[in-house]
Amino acid sequence: MNEHAMQMLAALAIAGGACQFLAWKLRLPAILFLLLTGIVAGPVAGWLDPDELLGPLLFPFVSLSVAVILFEGSLTLELAQIRGMEHVVRRFVTSGVLVTWSVTTLATHWLAGFSWEMATLFGAIMVVTGPTVIVPMLRSVRPTAKVANILRWEGIIIDPIGALLAVLVFEFIVSREAGAAFSQTLLAFVSVIGIGTLTGTVIGYLLGEALRRDWLPAYLYNLATLAAVFGAFAISNELAEESGLLAVTVMGIYLGNRKGVPIEEILAFKESLSLLLITVLFILLAARLDIGQLAELGWLVVGVFLVVQFVARPLKVAYCTWGSSFSLRERALLAWIAPRGIVAAAVSALFAIKLEELGFDEAALLVPMTFVVIIGTVVFQSLTASSLGRWLKVSEPDPHGFLIIGANPLARTIAKALDQQKVRVMLTDTLWDNVSRARMAGLRSYYGNPLSEHAELYLDTSGLGYLLALTADAHLNGLACNRYRDQFGPRHVFALRVGGNASGRADVARQGRRAFGEDVTYVDLSRRIYRGAEIRRTNLSENYTLDHFAEMYGARATPLFALDPKGRLEVLAADNQREPGPGWSIIALIDQDPDEASKPRNEKTESGKTRGREA
After folding, report:
1. pTM (2 d.p.)
2. Same domain, yes or no, for 438 and 465?
3. Per-residue confidence at 614, pLDDT binned at 50, 70, 90?
């Protein structure tokens, strides 16, 4: 029996890894493949029985997994981001939630015949979307930046908010069932909220102090954080039953918003752990589906899905975008995309188990109902959203922006030049000093590792179609090129050689095209930028060709980009096949002319040529 359990756990990990790889390769939500794997392995083939495999450990495993997932999600929820957002996004994650909640609750009660308690809980669970299902869909649909930003931030922020709402509804149901009087029910409900909030805040404060004041060695940060999450969950549940999820959510929000806490190191570990838990958990939950319960729900459950898709979501979008500058086409696409994901599945399964133990027989139907909505929204929207976006003309036909790996002085200079040419740019760096300088220069930037799972979910690549690796680390440049090759295409991935000999196996950056020429290096360009070289744009014509440009500037100029007559930007790589001609523009790094540098500022150089303006 032990050997069988070991084999099943190994098979779970292998199958989950294969599902995640396949989802990444096909740019589809991993939840589709995890769901299919769980259903085939569980109710269809009978290979996997989670209750038999884990026995009494199933409930603790689900509980602790949900706690870690919610903590990781709430850790990324910065209150400053909510305060600084436009009113449309604020509505989507605050008052707009009430629209989805109320419409779904009414449909679940009237169509599926759920009691008001179960219908209200189900409606609360259904308000979440989540970045794990939104981000892959956005890559496929490629909506305009305006629409993509709304959907991204809604998915990021609404996960912990929706889970918190579901926890509060669950606590109210349990408290109300346990007490005879409404006052007792309200008191129990308030005590759960108070203890959960207090426990999460106190343990979050203690952990934050330990991390801020270096009471722990760096290698124990992740272990201490995981122990604190489990401790907060267990202690809070001991003080007030079922308040643990609220405690870890509050703890994550507190740490994520406290200055001086090195949450980046914690997030790197939590991302990998959450991904593993999500992968295994979703297969296990899908394997627990009861086909008989689905049959018991009947076709009315399809009616609930249709209301969620075609009534609740459009009403929420209409309310949240009222009085905004969004066009009808943009609102239509916003109303179409709202897939449910792992948080909805995990929270519904957790509450179903708990409520069944408390004697709520109807709770067993929460999970199949949730999975019907998950399957319906993910499959339906994945198959139709791209076509709808193109038909509505709110999809970007050809993303031409640049994702620049590195925010060092060279990368910032090039990004500024592209930004002045109205080209969308996003810089990413692991050094906060570089990122802060980029932001002070007005450049969009992402602080973190571009290869991480966090970047997979939170790095905004909408409007970006090219990669330009500009760091002093050839290994990172090469890995970035390999990572984004499938997303942007092999012809749109570029890396600048760092320096030295370009041959040999150590030259990892060869996984991307050579940016700016075979002999151009990061070291050389950075040195010239430091000495005062500037990026300028020069227009070519019949009388001033590329040869004239080369003759005029010689070794002082290094062409970086070219703009064709239609305004399309090209990176001047070592393997370029098109040569700029009349009507084109050259964007080049040009060293200061020693003679011009010595002239008075008001003296102009006369060349008789068409000189480019500075970029």
Report:
1. 0.70
2. yes
3. very low
